[in-house]
Amino acid sequence: MRRISLVSITALTAVCALALTGCGNERAGSAAARTEVDRVQPGSSATQTATPRPDPADDESGDSEFIAFMMLLNTVAEPCVPEPPTAVPPEESEAMAEPPASPLPELPLPDEPPPSSEPRDPQEARQEIELSPVEKCEARQHVRRITKALAAGSADPAPEDVGAVLGGLGYIQERVDGPQRARGGVEFTLDLRVMGGSLCLSGTTTGTKTTIDSYGADVEADCTEVRR
After folding, report:
1. Which residues share a beta bridge with 202?
2. pLDDT tens across 143-166, in order?
3. Which of 63, 78, 71 is nearest to 194 (CA)?
4. Measured between alpha carbons, how far is residue 71 from residues 29, 68, 113, 131 in Å?
5. How far is CA 228 from CA 95, 130, 203, 216, 225, in A?
6. What pLDDT, on the 0 to 100 scale, is given for residue 117?
7. Which of 19, 47, 164, 223 could form a disulfide linkage to 200, CB 3.0–4.6 angstroms apart?
8. How confident is the model at residue 102 (pLDDT cuts 50, 70, 90)?
9. How far apart are CA 193 and CA 216, in angstroms?
């Protein structure tokens, strides 16, 4: 009878030990789970999906393309810009800096025209504008380089061939109308108006012959809308 009691006590002790071990593991697992939950809170960087940032090159590609176009126009126009005046000799500049002996009379200011409430006639904006001497020189420079590039291309170019030639010369797509087939050749129009300028070019090419005309357009009209 005493032996049975010792065996029972031993078994009971083993069961309690197993139970305590299970309870410890359960508590450790719960604590680890709570620690993980505390570590990853809603709204933290671990639970939010990372938003891809836009590539700066995509946003700046249009700007860099236009800057290159502006540099092209400046390069073509450089031989046409007159030389700045020479410096004034020091003795002349000192004489010019001296105040006059008597004050000059004040000249009356011209009367400003009264503001007009009537809208501008759209047909007026489509009139051809006279090009300045500098713009006429620029036009000759552009015509020369475009004609040379087209002559080196296909003998019977398609519109996409002409577009590729113009793009290779640095004329951006947003400033090119066409190219398109018309009158047995390929037509295109270039808008070269920048910094208050008015220069437009309209050309036709068959591959063996290229004709390009220059003219001025108002800023309120497209180059293709000008009546010539």
Report:
1. 189, 213
2. 999 999 999 988 889 999 999 999
3. 71
4. 68, 5, 38, 21
5. 51, 11, 14, 10, 9
6. 62
7. 223
8. low
9. 9
